Amino acid sequence: xxxxxxxxxxxxxxxxxxxxxxxxxxxxxxxxxxxxxxxxxxxxxxxxxxxxxxxxxxxxxxxxxxxxxxxxxxxxxxxxxxxxxxxxxxxxxxxxxxxxxxxxxxxxxxxxxxxxxxxxxxxxxxxxxxxxxxxxxxxxxxxxxxxxxxxxxxxxxxxxxxxxxxxxxxxxxxxxxxxxxxxxxxxxxxxxxxxxxxxxxxxxxxxxxxxxxxxxxxxxxxxxxxxxxxx
Amino acid sequence: xxxxxxxxxxxxxxxxxxxxxxxxxxxxxxxxxxxxxxxxxxxxxxxxxxxxxxxxxxxxxxxxxxxxxxxxxxxxxxxxxxxxxxxxxxxxxxxxxxxxxxxxxxxxxxxxxxxxxxxxxxxxxxxxxxxxxxxxxxxxxxxxxxxxxxxxxxxxxxxxxxxxxxxxxxxxxxxxxxxxxxxxxxxxxxxxxxxxxxxxxxxxxxxxxxxxxxxxxxxxxxxxxxxxxxxxxxxxxxxxxxxxxx
Lengths: 231, 246
Description:
The complex is a heterodimer.
Chain A: H1 2-19, H2 21-40, H3 56-59, H4 61-85, H5 89-96, H6 100-130, H7 137-163, H8 168-196, H9 199-230
Helix pairs in contact in A: 1-6, 2-4, 2-6, 4-6, 4-7, 4-8, 6-7, 6-9, 7-8, 7-9, 8-9
Chain B: H1 3-6, E1 18-27, E2 30-40, E3 45-49, H2 56-64, E4 71-76, E5 79-80, H3 84-91, E6 94-97, H4 109-119, H5 127-133, H6 150-164, E7 168-172, H7 180-195, E8 199-203, H8 207-211, E9 216-221, E10 224-230, H9 234-237
Parallel strand pairs in B: 3-8, 3-9, 6-7, 7-8
Antiparallel strand pairs in B: 1-2, 1-4, 4-5, 9-10
C-alpha cells in the first residue's frame, strides 16, 4: 500500500513540477481572493470594545485565510482528478492492479504537499495584507497540519466520486464544501485562539481537526476502492 | 474450429480464456450487450467486427473487468467478472488499449511508460526494450506526451502494454491513427504475443490489417454475437513483417 502511495504521489508531484498549475494558477488565485477580501473589508474599521484595539480585517483574518485556502484547494483537487479523468487514465489506474488505499494515500499526499506550499505563501500574504502578528506558533502548526490533512483526504475522497462525471468541475465544490465545513469551523476557531488568545480555547479545536484528519484517512483507506469503481 | 483456437491453458484446463453466456451489459439503461454467448480460446487472435455502436468496445471493457454483466455470466481467464473480486483479479492479467491511450500529457514518454510499468508491477528492465521495440527510444522518449502525434501516443500505449505482458490483450481499433510502419508494428506485436501464449481480442474496422493476424472473426451486431468465422490460415498468409530489432 505504501509503495503504491509513493508511486502515485511522486507521479502527481512530477506532473505538477512539469505543468506548474499550482504556481501559475492556484497560487495567484489564492492571493487574488485574499486581496479582494482586503478590498471588501476596510482595514480602518475597528472592532468595538476590543482591547488591544484591532481592525475588523485583522479580527476576521483567520476565517478569511481558511476560506481562501479552501477555495484554492478546490482548484487543486479539481486539477488532481482532471489529470486522471483525461484520456482514460482512471481506467488505467483500475487496470494497473494498484492497491486502492495506496492510490488514495498517494493522491491525498500530493494534494497535502501542494496545499502546504499554498498555505505558506497565502499565510505570508495574509500577514502582510491584514497586519496580523504571528503568535503561539505551536498551536498554529498543529492546526495547519490537522486542517491540511483533513482537507487533502476528504477532498481527495469526494473529488474521486466526481472524477468520472462530465460535470465534475461544478460537482467537486458541491460535494466537498459541505464535508469540509466542520474543518473550516475548527481551523478558524483554533487559528483565532492562537493569534488572539486565549490559547487554551484553541487546543480542543486543534484536537477536533486531528480527529477529522484521522477519520478521513481511515474512511479513505477503507472506501476509496468503492469510490474509484463508482467514478 | 482450428487447433490453435482450441488450445488449452498451460495448466491443462480446457476452459476458454473468455466465456460469456447470455451476458448483458448496460450503459446507463441501454443494453450495449444484449445477451452475448461467446467462447474465445487460449491463444486465439479473435477479430471483433461490426458497425459503430454494435457493442465491441463494451465487450472489450467487460473482458477487461472494467464493467460487470448485469445478467448472464462472464468468465475471463478463469475469473468471474460478475463479482467485484473477480474483476479486480482479472485486471492484473489483461492489457487494454482503447480509444483513449491512458497517458499523462505532462509526463514524458519515458516517464509514462515507467509509471505504468511500475503501477502494474512490471520489472523496470522492461521499459527500455519496450521503448526500443515501439520505435520510441532516443529523441522521442524525453518528449512530453502532449507534444506527440496521435500515432506516437498509440505507440507509447503499446510500449506500456509490452511492459505489462498481459495474458489477454484487448485492442480497440489498434491500427487507427497509425501509419504503415505503425500498423506493421501492431501486427508484429500481436503475433509475438500469440507466440508467447497470449490471447488477443481485436476490435477493428481496419479489416485488411486486422484480418491478416486474426485466427477467428466474430461479428457483433446490435449488442449480440451473430456469427463466428474461423480463419484457418490467416497467420500463415499474413503480410506482417516481424522484426524483433525494429
